[in-house]
Design goal:
The chain has 266 residues and is of the alpha/beta class. The chain has eleven helices and eight strands. A hairpin with a 4-residue loop joins strand 1 (34-37) and strand 2. It is globular, with a radius of gyration of 20 Å. The structure holds zinc ion.
Length: 266
């Protein structure tokens, strides 16, 4: 599937630049955003504005286009060469499976960065998007809200989707088996898988924390549908908000050689 051009624009530019560009490039409406619909004696929204509205809606729903491409220099500055080589070899050999990235131990970090780096490898050929677990669950709950119409469907069809920051959503809704959130997520992942779409999840919880936080059903969904990659890290992350302080190169010590099912320890 070809990645639509406008997403590339959105990744690199802010939404208002993007609106201006859409208008500037559109001849149909003479750069106005609307055109006289003579048949109906009124003005109609032009396709360029419809595209803009759709993108704005996706952004408001928390579908993060900017994050879909992590900067390569960031990766090169964060991980050493050997680590990157190992990830690259892994990507070449295992292209088509759902992956769950978790920290190996409580203090380990980098699961989200590895997930984004892998996602990045597919961005030139496929449509790749990032959404946080929190935004995705919110979308399930706003299924009848016109404002977000089509957003969940859109995510269901993205070739490679990273569900980011699992553990920061409304956990209470995912503690009970058979809850609306769990059922929706299960159906969502199953539907994507049946369409041949790949789903990645990055999570800040270790295996033990997953079991303590989520319902049995949810852990089953994960272990049945995802290969789990506990990411170990030999260097501690500096305690700076969301950003990482780049002090020397960090090394992921146990990236892909500890393949195991999260269920196995129980
Ligand atoms: Zn137009």
């Amino acid at each position: 599937m070809q990645k639509p051009n406008y997403y590339t624009e959105l990744i690199s530019k802010n939404i208002f630049d993007f609106k201006g560009k859409l208008l500037a490039e559109c001849d149909k409406c003479n750069h106005l955003g609307y055109y006289p619909d003579e048949e109906h004696w009124q003005y109609s929204d032009c396709e360029c504005m419809k595209t803009f509205s759709k993108c704005r809606k996706y952004i408001e729903a928390g579908i993060d286009q900017k994050n879909a491409l992590i900067d390569k220099s960031y990766i090169l500055g964060t991980f050493d060469k050997e680590t990157i080589n190992r990830i690259n070899v892994y990507i070449r050999e295992n292209l088509n499976c759902n992956m769950l990235f978790i920290p190996k131990n409580k203090k380990d970090w980098g699961s989200d960065i590895v997930a984004k780096y892998i996602l990045r490898q597919f961005c030139s050929k496929y449509e790749c998007m990032v959404v946080t677990m929190r935004s995705l669950i919110s979308l399930f709950f706003s299924f009848d809200d016109e404002k977000y119409e089509g957003c969940a469907d859109y995510l269901g069809n993205v070739d490679y989707l990273l569900i980011d920051s699992m553990g920061q959503e409304y956990n209470s809704k995912m503690k009970q088996d058979d809850s609306f959130a769990i059922n929706s997520l299960n159906a969502f992942v199953a539907e994507r898988t049946s369409r041949g779409k790949i789903t990645f999840i990055s999570c800040k919880f270790t295996k033990d924390m997953l079991h303590k936080t989520y319902s049995k059903d949810f852990v089953s969904i994960l272990s049945d549908n995802f290969k789990v990659f506990p990411i170990g890290c030999s260097c501690e992350k500096a305690d700076v908000f969301d950003d990482i302080e780049l002090v020397g190169q960090k090394r992921i010590t146990e990236c892909f050689d500890t393949l195991e099912l999260i269920r196995s320890k129980r």
